[in-house]
Structure formats: C-alpha cells, structure tokens
C-alpha cells in the first residue's frame, strides 16, 4: 500500500499546486483591486473638490508673471536682464517664468488645467517616493501605497491647487526636488563613484537642482541633502563633483546677485533672512494631521502637538535605526539595511522640513 501511494506522489503534487494557484488568483485580484481603489481615493477626492468649487478665472497673483510675459513677447526685449526681471519676492523664478509662459499660450490660464497638472505632478512625486522608500523585496510594499497616497494627497494641500499658476509652480519645484533625491537613491548600491551609472544619476540630480531652484527658492534645501547623500553613497568622483558643484553655483547665483540689489519686486536681505518663527513652523508642519485648516493660516494648536510628536518620533526612529545598524555590524552583517532603506526616508523628511523652514 505504501508503495502504491509513493508512486502517486509525483502525479498528485503538481495537481495540488495547480489547485492552490487557481484558488489564489481571485484573492490576488481582490488585493490588487483593493490597493488600487484605496490609492486612488485621495487624489480623486482632491480633484472632485477642486473641479466642483470656485470659478475658472485668473487671479491677481498672476499679474507679476503676466507683466513679464508681456515684456518677453514684445519686440526688443533685453534678454540680458532676464534673471533680474524674474527675481521676484526674494527668489529666482527664471525657469518658472518659462513654464508660466507655456501655461498662458497653451492653457489660456485655465485654472482647472493648472489644478490637473498639479495633481499629475503630485502623482509623479508619489511614484518617486514609493520607489525610493520601499524595497522591491519587501512583501508588504504595495500595502503601504494607499497610506503614502493619503499623506501626499492630504486635503490640506488643496488650497495651493486652487490657483492654476501656483499649482504648477509649487508642485513642479517639489517634484524636481523629489526627482533629484530619487536619482541619488535609486539602486544606489550599484551606483558608486567607479560606476558610470553613478555619474549619470549625479547629472540628473544636478539638472533638477538648477531647474527647481529657478522655480522656487525653497528647492535650494535639496543641495546639502544631495551632497551629503552622494558622499554617503560613495557616488562622488571628479566628474560628479564638477557637475554637482556647477549646479549648486548656478542654483544659488541669482539669489547672491540680485537679493541685496533690490531688483524688481525683491525684498531687502534683512527681511528675507528674518528669524524663524518657530511656532508658525510647528503649526505648518503638522497641518496635514490637524482638523479645520482650510484657508486658516494662523497658528493651530492641534497641528503644533502633532508636529512635536512627529519630530520626537523621527528622532526616536533615527536612534533606533542607528542601534540596529551597530548591532548588525557586531554580528558580522556588513550589508545591514540601515543605509539602504533608511536614508531615503530620512532624506525625504529633511527635504520636507527644510522646505517648510525656508517657507516659514
């Protein structure tokens, strides 16, 4: 009898595996559909709010850019003054002005189009951050996508999307900064200084630094983050240092050149470098988790509480990750996961907090 059943084994096992695989297909399809639905709910909710409220008309914040657009499209414009003309309120908008010109010519300042482009740029940033943070070997990575979508498409971000030109400007700058980080951390283990792929990533990051800084000055915070990350990942060689150094200089030069001169509508240097309002910083940092924000721009007590809790949690995670790293090395694991999977998240947090610091 045992001989008979042992002979049936090779025939039965493939059938059992096929039966299990057929039963797993509906479950997998249900999981995929549920993850996709939960991921799409935040952007659809945000788009519904934007497209069903307000009027589709230009706003007075577009006047500065429209005046420059008229100057640029008129005959005899002196392009040598371009960087001075596009230095607005203490920061360079050299690249942003070109994007705005395209928005005027192709979109006729359609606010719904601007909001749609803004949502599209946020979606790109979601994909970049998801690819940076979660390893492909992580079996739970796709289950984290809805949570990341809910954070990035938070309702508190709707106010900036209600103005078409601002929707494009801010989201473009943030997406360029995110692309610079993605270029550094994407498969960084194979992108050291001796690998040509590492130099290509530095070139991409350098390009994003220049274009982002010429869109909104807050993107300047990405420069020290990229330098530190590239050094930490051993991606710096003579050529990459040349590219990254040139990009950093190009990103900063409009601010150094025109900030103190008072060109255009720029503010005095002392006003731009005014002391940080710590309470407003904390209030702004936690707005995504506080109720009743909407257009309210003053201090919000729940937001400040969430900010403090978030900063304490971030410090605790850093300390814990460092301890895990040391323990892994002590046990002989030289390929510990700390730099590979933790540094991208830390860089994103630094980018977000740094942007908010400069904005505040």
Description:
The chain has 360 residues and is mainly alpha-helical. Helix content is 69%, strand content 1%. It is built from 15 helices and two strands. It has helices spanning 2-51, 63-73, 82-85, 94-107, 111-133, 145-152, 158-161, 164-185, 196-213, 222-232, 238-258, 269-272, 278-285, 301-330, 338-359; strands spanning 87-88, 91-92. Strands 1-2 form a two-stranded antiparallel sheet. A hairpin with a 2-residue loop joins strand 1 (87-88) and strand 2 (91-92). Helix 5 (111-133) packs across helix 6 (145-152). It is globular, with a radius of gyration of 25 Å.
Number of strands: 2
Q: What structural class should be given to the helix and strand makeup?
A: mainly alpha
Low-confidence stretches: none
Shape: globular
Q: How many helical stretches?
A: 15
Q: What share of the residues does DSSP label as strand, in percent?
A: under 5%
Mean pLDDT rating: 77
Q: How would you characterize the largest beta sheet?
A: 2 strands, antiparallel
Distance between the termini: 81 Å
Element-level helix/strand string: HHHEEHHHHHHHHHHHH
Q: What is the alpha-carbon Rg in Å? A: 25 Å
Adjacency order of strands in the biggest sheet: 1-2
Amount of helix: 55-70%
């Amino acid at each position: 009898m045992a001989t008979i059943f042992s002979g049936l084994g090779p025939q039965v096992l493939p059938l059992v595996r096929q039966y299990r695989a057929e039963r797993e297909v509906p479950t997998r399809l249900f999981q995929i559909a549920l993850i996709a639905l939960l991921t799409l709910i935040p952007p659809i909710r945000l788009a519904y709010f934007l497209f069903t409220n307000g009027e589709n008309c230009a706003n007075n914040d577009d006047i500065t850019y429209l005046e420059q657009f008229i100057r640029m499209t008129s005959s005899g414009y002196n392009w040598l003054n371009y960087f001075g003309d596009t230095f607005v309120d203490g920061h360079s908008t050299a690249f942003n002005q070109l994007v705005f010109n395209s928005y005027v010519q192709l979109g006729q300042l359609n606010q719904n189009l601007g909001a749609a482009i803004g949502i599209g740029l946020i979606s790109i940033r979601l994909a970049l951050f998801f690819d940076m943070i979660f390893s492909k070997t992580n079996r739970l990575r796709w289950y984290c996508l809805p949570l990341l979508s809910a954070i990035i498409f938070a309702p508190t971000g709707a106010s900036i999307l209600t103005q078409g030109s601002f929707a494009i400007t801010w989201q473009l700058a943030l997406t360029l900064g995110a692309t610079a980080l993605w270029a550094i951390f994407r498969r960084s283990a194979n992108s050291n200084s001796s690998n040509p792929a590492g130099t290509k990533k530095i070139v991409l990051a350098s390009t994003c630094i220049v274009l982002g800084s010429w869109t909104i000055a807050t993107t300047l915070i990405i420069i020290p983050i990229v330098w530190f990350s590239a050094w930490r990942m051993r991606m710096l060689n003579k050529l990459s240092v040349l590219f990254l150094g040139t990009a950093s200089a190009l990103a900063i030069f409009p601010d150094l050149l025109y900030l103190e001169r008072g060109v255009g509508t720029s503010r005095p240097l002392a006003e731009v470098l005014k002391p940080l309002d710590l309470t407003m910083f904390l209030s702004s940092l936690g707005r995504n988790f506080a109720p009743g924000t909407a257009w309210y721009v003053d201090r919000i007590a729940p937001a400040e509480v969430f900010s403090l809790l978030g900063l304490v949690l971030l410090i605790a995670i850093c300390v814990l990750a460092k301890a895990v790293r040391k323990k892994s090395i002590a046990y002989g694991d030289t390929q510990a996961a700390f730099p590979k999977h933790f540094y991208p998240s830390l860089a994103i947090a630094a980018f977000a907090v740094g942007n908010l610091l400069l904005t505040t």
